[in-house]
């Protein structure tokens, strides 16, 4: 039936992140053993390269709540990265995602998530946009519906859609549709206004969700959670989302549509800790000197 | 006699199982001074179920488990029976009264309590000691033997873990997959304070049991291999009696065992024994310890750092590191209150962890002055343990919680400096309430056992956080544990069941979808009906515009709306009445009202109903449909053209070779009875059951025949009919204003749905773009969107949007490495858009001056006319940089300069433009920049691995993955 292949990454400790190159042929892993394997350079959750249309650019966010955007002016010299922008965000930023849209209609956009545990501090996801006029990054939206700590977020590949889709890993899997509103107001001010709608909310993991990632067309979302499952969610024709598969982390069990529901039931046995107690992700070191990003 | 009532097994430190229903009250009680506690006990009374002693006070209901220490002894049993009878039945007529028994029990408990109290070492000096759950704490520990573990509280139990099977003897269920058998119990010791298992236990377990009175006993479960060594039953006794707090075997020198004791003014608190040593000559006394340390100290906890070095927590104020190589010497120490539960990281002996009250300290012994890390908690801590399998993972248990905190502590180095360690915290809930202890499995990754206050045990595996990523080619990879990655490839059957658009796009791209010259051929490649219709429709409109049927429209793919000029001046159609008899020749008197206009005809052409000119084309069309088994559609269209007879024939034919289940014969019979008399029986009869017909076309057919006042809403909004048929129907039967309204509302609906059928109405207009965008939004099918846009929409209309679509699709093809498909698409693109040339993608720059050579090349070719000498027979040779005059690189094989061909004649294609064979092209490695003519290079790398340039060891060919 289903078959899951295996790669021995030969890490000595927990693997934190996996990244692929553009063609999906090379893979990089980073781990607690402080090695990054098979890779030029990569990130610890909070470093992301910008879309290729903007040149060689990368953004970091750190626990002190500052988003920094670096650019390599010379593509051939990767040792030089100059700090272009510094944006003060809320403390304990945990993750960020670039909007991968190629379109000239959409200015560069970043989503930042915080993993601060208190619900009192309000929204945990912020959308920043680069304004060509003022040459600054400005916060254009705070997603107030999400008050639990956010562990990961990912913009889906845009592929010409008129809206952006943002997946968020918090206590559940959230999928948001962000539609730019083209009214007179936003055109005058040059700041995009977004219409934010929650397209889906899945509690299938029954525990903290750890990572989310999109397939190439942005039509299937995969997520992993503390229940030890990898789950998939697919957009069906009428723009609504459905969970379609659950894969056990050790590859022993793969469930698709039909026998899917049972997996939700079986992992439901144990009580989940209250939200305030769910896991907290503490940054793997903060950047003290903005100009010296610690590369692995 | 009544003294038996208090079993000797009843003790406060051992088998005491306190369930406190009101926790808040209990908490206050727990911290009450001693005399309060005695009062607590004086109020003891019998529990409701009669099996133990219940203590009721201040709203807290405590139950103590009664250990029937005298069961089996005849007279005691009798006494017990009498007593039970006395308490339940009426007052006994002889002997003691119920009240006197109660009074006796009370006083006896109080007395026993006091004696126990004083017997406990250190208690005398304690100010606040309560009956804490701790007193009856259950502990759990994995043994070195696979699948066996022990628990201890009032008794020591040995369990073996087994996989749960369908029909197996009832096991104690530990997890969905595992269960445990109780193998043995050992209840010889009641004041157990600590246990450690002999580390070399490979077949049988040898336990060292530290007791409240300070005695350490080696014990086993039944007969074992150790019996021959006379180990079981051996006692290690300190000189002065006091509680043993901690005990630990040396894992390398397994005969050595160290124990930590409470304070005694004239005795040591850390004692090291060699169990193989016999008592000294001539003495029958206990074995003497080989090393003693810590005179008049208290040792709360201890742990071996390695075979010679020990860490101890002393006197509530310091942690010491003792070196036993040279008797016992303190080599390091730190002042801290966190002296409990010292635990050494099994993967890095530098790191210690210890706790006190609410905080855990993690120490680096190289920098012992202050803790490396302090982890505060909300509740009192009860146990900490480093994970045995995973590096730097510390498990922490807080009292009265159903969860365990796990900390992944990583020392980070930035340059040569150590920065504050990073900590990842996780909380796991094994599914127990009030966990009292846990134990990591010695070998299995991330597995631990936990035991609750009530004695429930859970076997739990902590799932490592999974991180995952998706490649562009649909490989999904995720981590499994710390070493392995799991992945599924695009060939996985899972993807088949998902039916995702990304898979379809790739497959279609490989087949050359969208690149076929004939538009309808593209439709044949897809299994999606809507897409197929769109391509057919575009093909049709293209053809109609070409052959001049649709004149007066300047667009290549006009829509019905533009043909009918709905948005401009309204057309005036003439209404024609065609009597039913004329066409059907049956019992009809009336006529059907139809509308005709030149533009309507054009619209009908667009819809595919191009048979108005003569009946032959209609028959032809119907025959086509019949061939495709679309009998009901054919019949309905025949009826809409007032050919009832034809419809009946079609249906009859259909019933002969048709799908079972649909009884077309009956429908044909019903149709045969058609009469347009408004009051006819037929009409009344058909009006109601027609809604029950499953087939949309049959439904529409009867709706049409029974329609009153020319109200055709049932047909126009019949979603089972294709948009073409509905629009065509409207074009025939709706008057101008209604037709206008209908088409407008239909367009809006189709745009909203993102239904590509709407292109029939809109054609390649701005609204058509909106439909495409909506279609893309709902399906994510960038491929069809981009292709349809390129093939049938103008650049002006699409503007930036179209560019985005095209770029998105191209980058999609790029990331799949479908270079050929990308190139074909680009070629198609430039043929469709002759004005916008694809941007130059390759530039060649000089090695010396860095200026582009290609610009000069273009200039030279353009200027060929003016320099005839350079063209023609003397082919253009450019062997040096036109800017700095330095020579261009040379082919590594033939040593000719770039720009020189291999000498073979180049072939010229039909257009007269000269294109050199690929084998003559210059190519080079992107890594070492060496190269030459393609044919030479291919030849070279057939036999060699390394670059042809001397001393260059670049493995160009292997690096170049494409």
What's the helix and strand layout?
The complex is a heterodimer of chains A (296) and B (962).
Chain A: E1 5-8, E2 15-20, E3 27-31, E4 36-37, E5 47-49, E6 57-61, E7 66-71, E8 82-88, E9 93-98, E10 109-114, E11 125-131, E12 136-143, E13 152-155, E14 164-169, E15 173-181, H1 184-189, E16 193-202, E17 209-214, E18 220-225, E19 229-235, E20 241-248, E21 254-256, H2 260-266
Antiparallel strand pairs in A: 2-3, 3-4, 5-6, 6-7, 7-8, 9-10, 10-11, 11-12, 13-14, 14-15, 15-16, 17-18, 18-19, 19-20, 20-21
Chain B: H1 23-30, H2 34-42, E1 44-46, E2 53-57, E3 60-64, H3 74-88, H4 98-119, E4 139-142, E5 148-152, E6 156-163, E7 172-173, E8 178-186, E9 192-197, E10 207-211, E11 216-219, E12 235-236, E13 244-249, E14 256-261, E15 268-274, E16 291-295, E17 299-304, E18 309-314, E19 318-323, E20 329-335, E21 340-344, E22 351-356, E23 359-364, E24 373-376, E25 381-386, E26 393-398, E27 404-410, E28 413-414, E29 417-418, E30 422-428, E31 435-440, E32 447-452, E33 457-461, E34 468-470, E35 476-480, E36 484-488, H5 493-498, H6 501-511, H7 519-524, H8 529-546, H9 560-563, E37 574-579, H10 580-584, E38 591-596, H11 598-607, H12 615-627, H13 631-640, H14 644-656, H15 664-672, H16 681-687, H17 696-705, H18 713-716, H19 723-733, H20 736-753, H21 759-762, H22 766-779, H23 782-792, H24 795-815, H25 819-832, H26 854-862, E39 922-924, E40 931-933, H27 934-943, H28 956-959
Antiparallel strand pairs in B: 1-2, 2-3, 4-5, 5-6, 6-8, 7-8, 9-10, 10-11, 11-12, 13-14, 14-15, 15-16, 17-18, 18-19, 19-20, 21-22, 22-23, 23-24, 25-26, 26-27, 27-30, 28-29, 31-32, 32-33, 34-35, 35-36, 37-38, 39-40
Helix pairs in contact in B: 11-19, 12-13, 13-14, 13-17, 14-15, 20-22, 22-23, 23-24
């Amino acid at each position: 039936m289903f078959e899951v292949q295996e790669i021995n990454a030969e890490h000595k400790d927990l693997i934190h992140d996996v990244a692929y190159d553009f063609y999906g042929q090379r893979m990089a892993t980073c781990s607690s053993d402080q090695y990054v394997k098979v890779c030029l350079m990569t990130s610890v959750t909070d470093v992301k390269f910008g879309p290729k249309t903007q040149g060689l650019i990368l953004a970091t966010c750190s626990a002190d709540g500052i988003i920094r955007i670096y650019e390599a002016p010379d593509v051939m010299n990767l040792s030089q990265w100059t700090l272009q922008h510094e944006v003060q965000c809320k403390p304990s930023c945990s993750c960020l995602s670039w909007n991968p849209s190629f379109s000239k209609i959409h200015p560069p956009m970043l989503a930042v998530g915080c993993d601060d545990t208190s619900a009192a501090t309000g929204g945990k996801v912020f959308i920043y946009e680069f304004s060509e006029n003022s040459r600054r990054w400005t916060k254009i939206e705070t997603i107030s519906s999400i008050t639990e700590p956010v562990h990961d977020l990912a913009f889906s590949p845009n592929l010409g859609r008129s809206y952006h889709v943002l997946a968020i890993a918090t206590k559940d899997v959230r999928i948001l549709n962000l539609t730019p509103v083209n009214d007179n107001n936003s055109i005058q001010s040059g700041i995009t206004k977004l219409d934010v709608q929650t397209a889906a909310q899945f509690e299938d993991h029954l525990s903290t969700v750890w990572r989310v990632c999109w397939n190439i067309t942005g039509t299937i979302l995969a997520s992993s959670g503390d229940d030890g499952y990898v789950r998939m969610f697919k957009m069906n024709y009428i723009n609504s989302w459905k969970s379609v598969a659950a894969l056990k982390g050790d590859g022993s069990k793969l469930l698709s549509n039909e026998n899917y529901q049972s997996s939700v039931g079986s992992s439901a046995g144990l009580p989940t800790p209250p939200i305030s107690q769910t896991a907290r992700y503490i940054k793997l070191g903060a950047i003290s000197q903005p100009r010296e990003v610690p590369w692995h | 006699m009544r003294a038996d009532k208090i079993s000797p097994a009843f003790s406060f430190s051992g088998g005491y199982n306190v369930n406190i229903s009101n926790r808040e009250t209990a908490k206050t009680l727990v911290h009450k001074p001693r005399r309060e506690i005695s009062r607590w006990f004086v109020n003891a009374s019998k529990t409701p179920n009669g099996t133990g002693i219940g203590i009721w006070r201040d709203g807290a209901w405590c139950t103590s488990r009664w250990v029937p220490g005298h069961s089996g002894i005849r007279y005691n049993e009798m006494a017990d029976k009498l007593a039970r009878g006395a308490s339940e039945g009426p007052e006994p007529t002889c002997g003691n009264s119920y009240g006197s028994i109660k009074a006796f029990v009370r006083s006896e408990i109080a007395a026993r309590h006091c004696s126990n109290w004083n017997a406990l070492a250190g208690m005398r000096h304690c100010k606040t000691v309560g009956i804490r759950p701790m007193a009856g704490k259950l502990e759990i520990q994995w043994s070195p033997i696979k699948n066996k573990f022990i628990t201890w509280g009032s008794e020591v139990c040995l369990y073996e873990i087994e996989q749960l099977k369908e029909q197996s003897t009832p096991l104690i269920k530990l997890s969905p997959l595992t269960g445990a058998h109780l193998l043995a119990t050992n209840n010889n010791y009641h004041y157990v304070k600590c246990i450690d298992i002999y580390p070399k236990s490979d077949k049988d377990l040898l336990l060292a049991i530290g007791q409240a009175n300070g005695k350490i006993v080696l014990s086993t479960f039944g007969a074992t291999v150790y019996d021959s060594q006379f180990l079981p039953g051996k006692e290690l006794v300190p000189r002065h009696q006091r509680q043993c707090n901690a005990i630990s075997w040396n894992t390398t020198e397994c005969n050595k065992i160290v124990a930590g004791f409470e304070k005694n003014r004239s005795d040591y608190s850390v004692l090291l024994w060699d169990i193989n040593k016999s008592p000294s000559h001539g003495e029958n006394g206990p074995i003497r310890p080989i090393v003693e340390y810590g005179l008049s100290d208290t040792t709360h906890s201890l742990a071996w750092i390695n075979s010679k070095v020990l860490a101890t927590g002393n006197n509530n104020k310091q942690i010491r590191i003792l070196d036993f190589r040279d008797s016992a010497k303190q080599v390091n120490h730190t002042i801290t209150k966190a002296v409990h539960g010292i635990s050494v990281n099994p993967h890095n002996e530098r790191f210690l962890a210890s706790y006190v009250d609410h905080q855990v300290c993690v120490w680096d012994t190289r920098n012992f002055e202050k803790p490396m890390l302090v982890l505060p908690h909300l509740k009192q801590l009860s146990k900490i343990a480093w994970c045995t399998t995973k590096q730097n993972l510390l498990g922490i248990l807080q009292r009265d919680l159903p969860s365990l905190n796990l900390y992944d502590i990583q020392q980070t180095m930035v340059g040569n400096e150590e920065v504050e360690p990073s900590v990842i915290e996780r909380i796991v809930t094994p599914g127990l309430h009030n966990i009292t202890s846990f134990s990591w499995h010695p070998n299995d990754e991330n597995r631990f056992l936990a035991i609750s206050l009530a004695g429930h045990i859970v076997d739990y595996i902590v799932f490592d956080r999974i991180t995952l990523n998706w490649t562009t080619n649909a490989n999904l990879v995720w981590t499994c544990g710390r070493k392995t990655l799991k992945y599924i490839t695009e060939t996985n059957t899972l993807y088949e069941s998902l039916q995702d658009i990304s898979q379809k796009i790739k497959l279609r791209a490989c087949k050359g979808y969208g690149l076929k010259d004939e538009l309808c051929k593209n439709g044949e490649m897809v299994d999606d009906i809507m897409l197929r219709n769109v391509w057919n429709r575009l093909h049709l409109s293209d053809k109609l515009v070409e052959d001049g049927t649709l004149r007066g429209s300047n667009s290549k793919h006009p829509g019905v709306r533009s043909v009918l000029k709905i948005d401009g001046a309204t057309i005036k159609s003439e209404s024609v009445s065609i009597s039913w008899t004329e066409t059907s020749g049956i019992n009809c008197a009336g006529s059907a009202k139809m509308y005709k206009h030149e533009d309507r005809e054009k619209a009908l052409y667009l819809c595919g109903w191009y048979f108005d000119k003569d009946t032959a084309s209609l028959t032809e069309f119907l025959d086509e449909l019949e061939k495709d088994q679309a009998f009901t559609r054919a019949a309905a269209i025949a009826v809409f053209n007032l050919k009832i007879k034809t419809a009946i024939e079609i249906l009859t034919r259909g019933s002969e070779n048709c799908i079972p289940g649909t009884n077309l014969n009956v429908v044909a019979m019903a149709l045969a009875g058609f009469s347009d008399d408004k009051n006819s029986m037929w009409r009344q009869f058909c009006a109601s059951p027609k809604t029950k017909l499953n087939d949309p076309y049959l439904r529409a057919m009867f709706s049409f025949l029974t329609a009153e006042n020319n109200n055709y809403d049932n047909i126009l909004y019949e979603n089972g009919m294709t948009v073409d048929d509905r629009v065509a129907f409207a074009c025939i039967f709706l008057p101008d204003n209604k037709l206008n309204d209908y088409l407008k509302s239909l367009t809006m609906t189709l745009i909203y749905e993102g239904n590509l059928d709407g292109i029939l109405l809109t054609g390649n207009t701005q609204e058509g773009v909106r439909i495409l965008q909506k279609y893309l939004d709902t399906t994510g099918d960038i491929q069809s969107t981009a292709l349809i846009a390129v093939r049938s929409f103008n650049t002006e209309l699409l503007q930036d949007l179209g560019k985005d679509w095209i770029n998105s699709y191209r980058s999609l093809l790029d990331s799949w490495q479908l270079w050929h498909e990308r190139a074909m698409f680009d070629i198609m693109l430039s043929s469709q858009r002759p004005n916008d040339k694809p941007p130059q993608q390759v530039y060649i720059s000089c090695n010396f001056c860095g200026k582009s050579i290609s610009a000069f090349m273009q200039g030279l070719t353009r200027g060929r006319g003016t320099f005839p000498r350079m063209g023609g027979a003397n082919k253009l040779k450019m062997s040096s940089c036109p800017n700095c005059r330095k020579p261009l690189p040379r082919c590594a094989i033939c040593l000719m300069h770039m720009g020189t061909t291999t000498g073979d004649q180049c072939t010229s294609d039909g257009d007269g433009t000269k294109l050199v064979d690929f084998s003559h092209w210059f190519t080079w490695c992107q890594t070492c920049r060496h190269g030459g003519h393609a044919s030479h290079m291919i030849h070279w790398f057939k036999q060699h691995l390394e670059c042809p340039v001397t001393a260059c060891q670049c493995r160009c060919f292997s690096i170049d993955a494409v």
